[in-house]
Amino acid sequence: STITKPLQENVLDPTADVLNISGKYNGGVIAKTVEINMEEFNRLNPGFDMVMSTGEAYDLRLPPQKMDVFVANKYPILNESIQLLLSDTNADTKTTYQKNRATYKRK
User: Which neighbouring-strand residues pair with 4?
Assistant: First the structure.
């Protein structure tokens, strides 16, 4: 994966670096790690979490100094993103069983 300067048609932010990424990255984890607020992250990367959840690649856009932080922390960010996904999945899919208090009558 190489960092490229965006083409002129990048109207989101012509000064942002662009890196094509794939994996189960979470926008909140990226924003926290590179210290950018979520509003700015979402402005630069519309629909990020939705695209990442489909397993498709995404052109991540960040200011150059923030992209450097992302690249330096790429694997810890991915690991934290996956842990977050797993904890969310476990919470949502946990099966709870109620004790069956049926009473049986003898004939």
Answer: 18
3-class SS string, 9-51: CCCCCCCCEEEEECCCCCHHHHHHHHCCCHHHHHHHCCCHHHH
Long-range contacts of range 51-55, CB-CB < 8 Å, 24 or more positions apart? 52/23, 52/24, 52/25, 52/26, 52/27, 53/24, 55/22
Give Cα 32 distance to the centre of its chain.
Answer: 11
**Cα 101 to Cα 86, 97, 104, 107, distances in angstroms:** 33, 12, 10, 19
The one-letter code for the residue type at 14 is P
Q: Which two tokens stand for residue 56?
A: 């498709």
pLDDT grade for 78, boundaries at 50, 70 and 90: very high
Residue 88: per-residue pLDDT:
74
**pTM assigned to the model:** 0.72
